[in-house]
Design a protein that fits this description.
The structure is a homodimer of 331-residue chains.
Chain A lengths: L1 E5 L4 H13 L1 E2 L2 E2 L2 E6 L12 E6 L7 H6 L5 E4 L5 H6 L1 H25 L5 E7 L22 H18 L4 E7 L1 E2 L12 H11 L4 E3 L6 E5 L1 H13 L10 E3 L3 E4 H12 L1 H4 L2 E3 L3 H8 L8 H5 L8 H12 L9
Helix pairs in contact in A: 1-7, 4-5, 6-8, 8-12
Amino acid sequence: MHILIIGAAGMIGRKLTQRLAADGRLGHATVDQLTLADVIAPDTPTRFGGTVNTIAIDLAQPGAATSLVAARPDVIFHLAAIVSGEAEANFDKGYRINLDGTRFLLEAIRQQGLQTPYRPRLVFTSSIAVFGAPFPDRIDDEFFSTPLTSYGTQKAIDELLLSDYTRKGFLDGIAIRLPTICVRPGKPNKAASGFFSNILREPLSGQEAVLPVSTDVRHWFASPRAAIGFLTHAGTLDLARLGNRRCLSMPGLSATVGEEIEALRRIAGESAVRLIRHEPDQTIIDIVAGWPRNFDTRRAVALGFKADADFDQIIRIHIDDELGGKAGAGA
Amino acid sequence: MHILIIGAAGMIGRKLTQRLAADGRLGHATVDQLTLADVIAPDTPTRFGGTVNTIAIDLAQPGAATSLVAARPDVIFHLAAIVSGEAEANFDKGYRINLDGTRFLLEAIRQQGLQTPYRPRLVFTSSIAVFGAPFPDRIDDEFFSTPLTSYGTQKAIDELLLSDYTRKGFLDGIAIRLPTICVRPGKPNKAASGFFSNILREPLSGQEAVLPVSTDVRHWFASPRAAIGFLTHAGTLDLARLGNRRCLSMPGLSATVGEEIEALRRIAGESAVRLIRHEPDQTIIDIVAGWPRNFDTRRAVALGFKADADFDQIIRIHIDDELGGKAGAGA
């Protein structure tokens, strides 16, 4: 099996690459070729016996998508996007990359198939940003998309295109809407959602972190390991079971900031919790108030997608996968 | 006020032009200029005192949208589209006209505004084809879009784009999803939905008509006069009341084929009803089974959009507006 990952240099792309390289298979199929593409050339995975090609390419450039699908990969993971803040600040760039880039990819696949039959699996990472407030307490599988960002608009359009290209038989697509990833590894960043990870990751390494909202704020989470599980399951599941409705909110864990902190206390102790400094920030409070808090994802659950059990598990996954099994404070 | 109608040569476009020309105003504003565009040059309305420009133009050609908005019309009605059957048969043409054409228009408006401030009202005719079966008995204002045609996909994407361009302040947009127009004037055509109108229009003129489905089939209707009412109301309503949710299913009349026929009997008598020949057609039965039957349009109703009262009214509107007040059979 030949797998193409577009957006392979990002956090999720690197973890997916590592997982596929380490397993050497996707479901029952042996992976003998990995093509890893991103705007900067992705790293080559170390533990992989097959062929690896790494490519620096901008999907939004004419011809880029055509060159990526020319080798007819069996499964394509399309993770590439510019993030919400950048798409909001740069209207043209957001549409060029997040809409046109995806459309070029779909169209390149179709054109391959018009030459000789070709119908690859396409797994696309969409976002809960396709939803816009006001929300019901739990967003169900039939709630409408009224995004309040250009990023969410672009993802919602990509979902519609993927569904239509699938319905017409040009590819076998699925769009999965990832929850907010937590604990996100790396350094604190300026994303408005960054604090959800910062208040765990930093204290676990003995560092201070700032909490800009109150502890009763509720949000929707998945660990990086759960996210990779969603992707590999989406890459192997019989998609005929989805019928024509190919876009799914993934099962996450709905939890409050207070529940995050209690889990941190149980696992890393009071000294870790004391590293969280509460500094209310009205700008972030207002942004977060417009975000989804909870979902009813019964379709995805029935199809075998699995959420994290609780925040204790989410923290332990971070300690196992990023900290070599040891928290740095309070232990 | 300068009004631009794109798609002015179609059935709805011609009726909207006649209405605006006859009234000489839209809401409280005097209409002093009409620009009428379509792929073939629209007719010039007779009863209008202001300036009329008619233009033959293909919105999907580069530069076409820019030239249309260069004169900075105050209100734009965008009715142009290729129909569902053609968009399904010709994938590239459907996307070129129904998606790219609309996007060019939105972008041309934005580019005008980037030069000097410009924020026109844009009224866009979307379609209930944005919804795909299976449906609830009544589709409410928050039901999701899972179109089962490329046409419906293109309209759903246009809705998302219009909403985002509105949210960003580039224009003041509203998308209205029209019910099936009935009684559609003109000759019987090959559209799968044609029989809903044929079984009334033809007998009212003393002609036979074929009914390919059973009389218990339920569907969602608006008269041409109601549709023009939706458009003019959308052109004058304070759209700030819609917030960021700019796409609305219009209130229609949910009725069965049997109810259509009973109204025909009341108005035109048994001799008219006898002109309907029941010839079941499994292809049409299957297509129609996938169509919406009823909606809960409480948002549109609260905003002042008005449905037809019953099928008797729908038939009388046809007799008044198309037959000079006299039915040709059974009277």
